[in-house]
Write a structure and sequence with these properties.
Blueprint lengths: L1 H14 L8 H4 L9 E3 L5 H12 L4 E3 L12 E3 L1 H14 L4 E6 L4 H16 L7 E4 L3 H5 L4 H14 L4 E5 L2 H14 L7 E6 L3 H5 L6 E4 L2 H16 L9 E3 L3 E3 L12 H12 L7 H8 L3 H12 L3 H19 L4 H7 L5 H12 L3 H9 L1
Parallel strand pairs: 1-2, 3-9, 4-5, 4-6, 6-7, 7-8
Antiparallel strand pairs: 8-10
Amino acid sequence: MAQRMAGIGRFAKGAGWNLLAGYMLFDGLRGWRGDGALVTLRSDPNVESLVRRLRRRGIPVVDMTAEHPEMPIPRVCTDNRAIGRLAASHFAERNYRHTAYFTSHWSKIQSGRYEGFAEGLATAGIVEPPARWVLEEGPALRARNDSGAVSRWFAGLLERSPKPLAVFCNETKDAARVLAECRACGIAVPEDVAILGVGDDSVLCENQSVPLSCILQNGERLGYESAALLARLMDGKEAPASPVFVPPKGVAVRASTECTASSDPLVARALALVSSNVSRPWGVRQLAAEVGVSPASLNRRFVAELGHPPSVEITRQRLHKAKNLLLDTDMTLAEVAERCGICNAFYLSSLIRRHTGLPPKEWRKRAKT
């Protein structure tokens, strides 16, 4: 919400608007002389009534949600199918083949995210559709006020699901709940179950026993685009024929998905070693010695399990760590290279160019905006 309001405020300031916020309009609507309104149509009858009254008076209204498509008004909303596809891509890159989607309840938003998730998995060649876990359906609905019964429901789902498992959660609070249930069942995160949420609540995400990865929704752009559309309508221009969809900004990767799935115990052990020793300047020979096999044997098992050799995985994890440091710190390229086991800044620069098409400075600037 704060990001969305920031986007609205940025547009309003540039346009010279007098901006009012909150429910102050309900009591004084009859005397209100506003030119337009931005609303979030969810399940509040007061907001729905307000929208109808404003439209009867010819005042333009823009909805910033996708929950009431039956009400034919202009809207700007999050692209929920794109969020689902991004989640699928995130897990597919990490070699997950068993997946689930968890949400507390079901609506248009959850449906769109699930459908996008299923589409993205299919596009990535993952034929097994994601399991659909909805807390307020079936046995969980009847037991929703009994925390013990809900935990038993979760335990059954988690224990029956094939591992390694990737769980895409509708919201950050849903991701936190899955993490808590995994801990209660003694299930390792991310080694056995990887967890990805939506909505970057940094307090909730970062202060967990295992920090939670999440998809960033780009709320500021949604607010700005909503205000821009309202401005066009207030100028008498035609409304768009279909909703304006705002794609997600990306994934904030944290420990809950910092793992590559493997059913081969030796490969899984090697992957864990690589992940926990990213700054170590080692190669395939040293990694093979750590897990007790020859480099050739380790190479064969990596290719059979993941489709690429261990050298590619080491580079992938080093580059991933380097990109996170470039985004989250003010470290120089040389300092980042040293922290990621990369020989020098020049080689790191060439890696970033090869994988992003941009020099590090430009990629860093664009990724932060």
